[in-house]
């Protein structure tokens, strides 16, 4: 902001002086009326209105900052998760940005705008009154009318004195533009500090990125379920029908004939494709997870593991993204146990305590697991981070390897008893 143009600095300071008086009136009316009528609860909305006065003023001041500070000044406010005035009010009253804007509003109403007015009067109005002294003298009737007193300072009773006064006014205007720019720069820095602090911008941006990542994960999970349903209800059913048709055709063919052998081979291929498709569907989004929840899905993953797995999962129904993340973390961990650990046995323990899902996968393998070696654990950590979850791997050489994940979550409200396997 070192090179602020004089006319921009003048516009910024004059604008602050013009906003101050109406703002002071609004605050005083809201405060006095709200306190007076507060005993009958009628004044509470006025007090609330006064507390929220800073929100529109803050938005206006962030726009006015462009006059002297071209750096972006985005709003520090977050967007409500749900539409409606109630959600908006609840969020605004909880945000620190709202109260910083109220503090700036009070400061502007009682301190800043009188200061803006005084600076504008000394650096702009006074030189302007001196600069128009010849015109003022002419409009007042000339020297014969007794002269004039520009800005109430001294008597000017002739055009030579009026021209000298005008020259002085122009010089003062040029000289005082520099302190005016310095004042406007300091004034804008104070406004930015309260209305758009740099760390608040970073926190707001980080919060928005986190929310957008969560929305992407939710959308991705919904798409996975849609693809799973399409494969289960479409391609899988057609393959089942094809396999049955080939089986019936084999019954009509002569035993040990070339046609029977070709039908048998085609039937075997259809069954193999059907088995692969079922595994693919289970990998996309297992139906057991959607129908019965995470404990049953963990049991299913343990049954399919080449390494014997002991499971101990006692969990309520959790939000779908949490259940999905927990299931795929367990499955990836068991896959790593089978491929890399050399373990003879593994165990999965899952509980929901203290508002957090905690899953531990332990094996008796050789240890030395490193998430940086491309075992899929880095991707799992990124997936859990979207849900504010954490992934911890302890794997000293010689074992055991212990993988622990934690995800903060609240159990789903169940409308009835959960289905039983």
TrEMBL record:
Q: Where is the Putative sensor domain?
A: 12-195
Molecular-function annotations in GO? ATP binding; phosphorelay sensor kinase activity; protein dimerization activity
- Coiled-coil regions listed in the entry: none
Species of the source: Streptomyces silvensis
* Tree of life domain: Bacteria
GO cellular component annotations of the record: membrane
EC numbers for this chain: 2.7.13.3
Keywords in alphabetical order: ATP-binding, Kinase, Membrane, Nucleotide-binding, Phosphoprotein, Transferase, Transmembrane, Transmembrane helix, Two-component regulatory system
Top EC category: transferase
**Identification of the protein by name:** histidine kinase
Q: Does the keyword NADP apply?
A: no
Q: Where is the Histidine kinase/HSP90-like ATPase domain?
A: 329-408
Q: Which InterPro entries match?
A: HATPase_C_sf, HATPase_dom, Put_sensor_dom, Sensor_HK_TwoCompSys, Sig_transdc_His_kin_sub3_dim/P
Q: Does the keyword Phosphoprotein apply?
A: yes
Task: Name the residues that span the membrane.
Answer: 12-34, 40-60, 102-130, 159-180
């Amino acid at each position: 902001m070192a090179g602020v143009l004089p006319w921009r600095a003048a516009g910024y300071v004059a604008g602050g002086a013009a906003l101050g008086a109406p703002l002071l009136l609004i605050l005083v009316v809201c405060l006095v009326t709200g306190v007076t009528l507060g005993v009958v609860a009628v004044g509470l909305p006025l007090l609330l209105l006064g507390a929220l006065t800073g929100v529109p003023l803050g938005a206006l001041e962030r726009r006015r900052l462009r006059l002297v500070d071209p750096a972006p000044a985005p709003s520090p406010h977050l967007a409500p998760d749900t539409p409606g005035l109630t959600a908006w009010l609840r969020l605004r009253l909880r945000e620190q940005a709202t109260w910083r804007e109220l503090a700036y509003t009070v400061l502007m109403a009682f301190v800043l705008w009188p200061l803006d007015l005084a600076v504008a009067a000394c650096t702009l109005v006074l030189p302007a009154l001196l600069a128009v002294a010849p015109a003022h003298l002419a409009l007042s009737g000339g020297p014969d009318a007794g002269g004039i007193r520009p800005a109430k300072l001294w008597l000017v009773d002739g055009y030579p004195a009026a021209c000298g006064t005008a020259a002085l006014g122009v010089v003062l205007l040029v000289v005082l533009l520099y302190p005016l720019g310095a004042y406007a720069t300091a004034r804008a820095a104070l406004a930015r500090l309260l209305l758009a602090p740099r760390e608040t911008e970073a926190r707001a941006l980080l919060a928005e990125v986190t929310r957008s990542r969560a929305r992407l994960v939710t959308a991705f999970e919904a798409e996975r379920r849609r693809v799973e349903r399409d494969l289960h209800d479409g391609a899988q059913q057609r393959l089942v029908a094809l396999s049955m048709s080939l089986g019936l055709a084999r019954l009509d063919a002569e035993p040990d004939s070339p046609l029977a052998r070709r039908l048998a081979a085609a039937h075997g291929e259809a069954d193999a494709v059907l088995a692969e498709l079922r595994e693919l569907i289970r990998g996309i989004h297992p139906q057991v997870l959607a129908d019965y929840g995470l404990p049953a899905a963990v049991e299913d993953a343990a049954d399919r593991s080449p390494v014997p797995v002991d499971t101990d999962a006692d969990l309520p129904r959790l939000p779908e993204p949490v259940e999905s993340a927990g299931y795929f973390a367990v499955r990836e961990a068991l896959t790593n146990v089978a491929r890399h650990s050399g373990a003879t046995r593994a165990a999965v323990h899952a509980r929901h305590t203290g508002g957090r899902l905690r899953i531990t996968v332990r094996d008796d393998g050789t240890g030395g697991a490193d998430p940086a070696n491309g075992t899929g654990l880095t991707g799992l950590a990124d997936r859990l981070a979207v849900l504010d979850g954490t992934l911890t791997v302890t794997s000293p050489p010689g074992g055991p390897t212990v993988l622990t994940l934690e995800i903060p979550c609240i159990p789903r409200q169940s409308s009835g008893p959960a289905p039983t396997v």
